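Annex B. Sample input.
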Amino acid sequence: MLQTGMKGRWVLRTLAAGALLWLVWRCWKLVGDDPILQLILFLFAGAGGGLFFVKVVLPRLADAIGTSIFLSGERLPSEEQADKEETGGDEAENTGVTEQAPSEPQNDK
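Annex B, continued. Sample output.
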């Protein structure tokens, strides 16, 4: 059922893009040989296309790239582990001090 909805949206978007391109082509033919009207149409079409790219295409592209980077499945070491590897081990080992957990919980009575 989900696939049908996605296909339906894809078809509607394709038809809308085709209708928009047809409308731009008709407007281009309507202005004919007048270079000023062609320039104005070209500027409005470029501004509209740029706005569409920035508001629709670019966020989706950035989301896809971010998802592929952050959900790549690669396990990265934490900063603490990286620091330990750089210094050559745990600081407690370097100073000769070891920490031990208390054997019994302490009560403050």
